[in-house]
Design goal:
The chain is of the alpha+beta class. Helices cover about 30% and strands about 25% of the residues.
């Protein structure tokens, strides 16, 4: 899937934004991602901090980076690909509810590969002890400064586009309002 070029100049200011990029740290990570030769840690740092704003520990969410060796379980991850998940605890019962796969490159093959990797991981999550086998998992696939929203329905082998996002490829700065709304919607669904 080709990416659309961002309409934003590199000289952005926090005053231009209303949600997550109004925070200097997040805007700094965003600018680092946009620089030629940026490192994947900027993508990871941006998402770690952005997700903590929406999915707060105060509201019983926890954000974790996958640390298992997934290759032993049939999931082979690219070196520049990171899986993190959001756990929600309701009545003392923790469940993984949202998964984010993040990669650095932006070619069409990377998008398909990233979605497949996060879907393969989500299928493992669905059968973990303690997970609700009938629950939908919400998937975010992030490549560079772009994100798409998907879902993996219970028992499905293939993730589908999450309907409210209308198959859109969203850019973190250009589409901040829509990304913020979608993150809020997903949070409200899983609560």
């Amino acid at each position: 899937m080709p990416t659309k070029p961002s309409q934003r100049a590199q000289s952005l200011a926090t005053a231009e934004f209303k949600h997550y990029l109004k925070y200097a740290a997040l805007l700094s990570y965003y600018k680092e991602i946009k620089e030629a030769g940026s490192v994947e840690s900027s993508v990871d740092n941006l998402w770690n901090n952005l997700l903590m704003i929406v999915f707060s520990v105060i509201d019983n969410f926890g954000i974790e980076q996958e640390s298992r060796v997934l290759k032993n379980q049939g999931v082979s991850l690219r070196a520049d690909f990171v899986i993190r998940y959001i756990r929600y605890i309701k009545n003392g019962d923790p469940k993984k509810v949202i998964l984010l796969g993040a990669a650095e490159a932006t070619s069409g093959t990377v998008w398909a590969d990233a979605l497949q990797q996060v879907t393969n991981y989500a299928k493992l999550v669905q059968i973990e002890a303690g997970q609700d086998p009938n629950a939908t998992l919400y998937l975010l696939v992030n490549v560079g400064t772009y994100v798409r929203f998907h879902q993996l329905n219970a028992g499905a082998d293939v993730a589908i586009d999450w309907a409210p996002a209308q198959r859109n490829l969203l850019e973190l700065a250009d589409d901040e309002e829509r990304i913020w709304q979608h993150l809020q919607q997903v949070r409200d669904i899983v609560v």
